[in-house]
Specification:
This protein is α+β, with helices and mostly antiparallel strands. The chain has 3 domains: 50 residues, no CATH class; 187 residues, no CATH class; 116 residues, Immunoglobulin-like (Sandwich), CATH 2.60.40. The chain has 11 helices and 9 strands. The protein has a 5-stranded mixed sheet with strand order 2-9-8-4-5, with no helix packed on it. A 4-stranded antiparallel sheet has the order 1-3-7-6. A hairpin with a 2-residue loop joins β4 and β5. The chain is elongated, with a radius of gyration of 28 Å. The N and C termini lie far apart (98 Å).
């Protein structure tokens, strides 16, 4: 008869999240006996406790998975509330970003991809414990970064504009990081999925980290630097250790960085210019001594159109690194672009700038009636905010 000891690992309980009923109380005793620890030999208390805990998790693991996901989502919402206390806390993202980067590299270089991860989950209790602990810590780091960044992207995006879709993407990533069933079974099982998720998280967080560490940095440089580092982060998961000593890997990495930064530049109009955001954007006929509008108009007759002025208050918590412009549009067609040097501007408070431009300079079309907008943009074309109004006949 063959020795049952070599088959013992197959009888040990499955990891957290296995199908309910996969391990029962009797299976614990079977596993102990199969492992050669039954009979006259005393079973170590720590192994007995581990097997009993695994048996419990085998019966209720799936329910506990979802309970923990709800808890993680609630924890993420508390991070959102913490982030609303101010941009100064963004410096702490540097630590979590570095830790997450290191952990995910160690994870895949130690346990590999796909079936290798599955075999690691079914290995010795010690290996499973390391795997569970590392994925748990990594999930919490991702959750902290994404939920912290979410309110800044929300404030920076413009209602009805295309950059709202990027905020939705950040929200989806944040929620996915709380779903154990998705994170453990899919994202952390396949290196490619984990690499994309990891790179997007790095890209999202760096938009806050760079201005926090280097105030006054131009938003476009932040965007390109974040894209380049996100590409490098993706490569660290896929390139074999020491591969960058070879010229072909160096060339591939260089081309990837160029393509990544090029794609980020092309997509700059759909990415909010965090941490900059518009406090208010309005149109009216006249202003008060402090630069505010005396009256705010949502609709005006074409006869008073030349008297209209746009006033926008822009918050720059990351420092003043960008030149701003006002772009007047009629039905989406640009009618006037007013650069910062041609606008009246004043500092309202610490970190808030007020800009004013007039419609008197607009070359009016033959039929101006309809929807108009005044966009606040960076000189590089990223949308910061928008005022809307309608001209009537």
């Amino acid at each position: 008869m063959e020795d049952p000891t070599p088959d013992a690992p197959a009888l040990l309980p499955p990891p957290l999240g296995a199908a309910p009923g996969a391990v029962t109380g009797s299976a614990t005793a079977t596993a102990v006996t199969a492992a050669g620890l039954g009979g006259s030999r005393a079973v170590p208390w720590y192994l007995r406790a581990w097997l009993q805990a695994q048996a419990f998790l085998g019966r209720h693991g799936r329910q506990l998975w979802w309970v923990h996901s709800v808890y993680a989502l609630g924890l993420g919402l508390s991070v959102v509330l913490f982030a609303r206390k101010g941009f100064a806390h963004a410096r702490w993202l540097t630590l979590t970003l570095g830790a997450a980067w290191l952990l995910v590299v160690v994870f895949f270089h130690r346990w590999g991809n796909g079936e290798r991860v599955q075999r690691a989950r079914a290995n010795t209790p010690g290996t499973r414990l390391q795997l569970v602990a590392m994925t748990y810590v990594l999930k919490n780091l991702y959750q902290g970064m994404l939920f912290f960044a979410l309110p800044f992207y929300w404030s920076s995006a413009t209602r009805g504009a295309s950059n709202r879709w990027f905020v939705l993407l950040v929200g989806v990533l944040a929620v996915l990081s709380t779903l154990d069933a998705v994170f453990d079974r899919f994202l952390m099982r396949w290196r490619a999925l984990a690499g994309v998720f990891h790179a997007m998280t790095i890209f999202t967080a760096l938009h806050l980290v760079v201005p926090a560490l280097l105030p006054g940095t131009r938003t476009l440089w932040v965007l390109l630097a974040a894209a380049a580092l996100a590409v490098v982060a993706f490569w660290t998961l896929h390139a074999p250790a020491g591969s960058l000593r070879e010229w072909r890997y160096q060339l591939a990495l260089g081309l990837s960085v160029v393509l990544g930064t090029g794609a980020a530049w092309a997509a700059r109009r759909v990415i909010p210019p965090v941490p900059m955001y518009t406090v208010s954007a309005q149109v009216g006929e006249s202003t008060l001594p402090d630069g505010r509008l005396a009256t705010v108009l949502m609709e005006a007759h074409r006869s008073v159109a030349p008297k209209l002025v746009a006033v926008t208050d822009v918050a720059v918590p990351g420092g003043r690194g960008d030149a701003l412009v006002h772009v007047w549009r009629d039905h989406g067609v640009e009618r006037l672009r007013v650069t910062e040097g041609s606008m009246e501007q004043r500092r309202v408070s610490a970190g808030v700038l007020r800009l004013r431009s007039s419609m008197a300079l607009v070359r009016m079309p033959p039929h101006p009636a309809g929807p108009w907008t005044v966009d606040v943009e960076t000189a590089d074309g990223q949308l910061v905010g928008r005022a809307t109004f309608t001209i009537t006949e």
